[in-house]
């Protein structure tokens, strides 16, 4: 797992999480998760959450990779922070495009401290891609 340490007063930052042995992670039970180490941006502690989920409303057993950005701030205090984010899986082979979802803006606060994609990509599609995501996945 890679960590970029930032000055807490910084208003912008980029950070990553890496998931080693993605195929093993894909075989774990639904709701298994991995979290990045915390980084501090705009005075808040942030993490990336990667989680295995079943697709809502689906009757099959297909597993999906879920990504969310988590803001670890006091729930009892009144605060808010607007954040723009891009979720991507970085290709491990040069010359191949990353798998990403566009840029999104969300306002985090003491009642809503996470936001992401419950169905970012199915593990079936992720493991079928010829772009070398299956050994090590780097999420930015």
Provide the CATH superfamily.
Apoptosis, Tumor Necrosis Factor Receptor Associated Protein 2, Chain A
Indicate how many domains the architecture comprises.
1
The CATH first-level class comes to Mainly Beta
Low-confidence stretches: 1-7
The secondary-structure element order is EHEEEEEEEHE
Taking the alpha carbons of the first and last residues, their distance comes to 12 Å
Q: How would a textbook summarize the main sheet?
A: 5 strands, antiparallel
How many helical stretches? 2
Average predicted local confidence, pLDDT: 78
Let me know the number of strands: 9
Structural class estimated from helices and strands: mainly beta
> Which architecture name does CATH use?
Sandwich
Outline: globular
Description:
It comes from Heterodera schachtii. This is MATH domain-containing protein. Pfam families: MATH_2. This protein has 140 residues and is mainly beta. The protein has one domain: Apoptosis, Tumor Necrosis Factor Receptor Associated Protein 2, Chain A (Sandwich). Helix content is 8%, strand content 47%. It has two helices and nine strands; from the N terminus they run βαβββββββαβ. Strands 2, 3, 4, 5 and 8 form a five-stranded antiparallel beta sheet that branches. A four-stranded antiparallel beta sheet has the order 1-9-6-7, with no helix packed on it. The radius of gyration is 16 Å and the shape is globular. The N terminus is likely disordered.
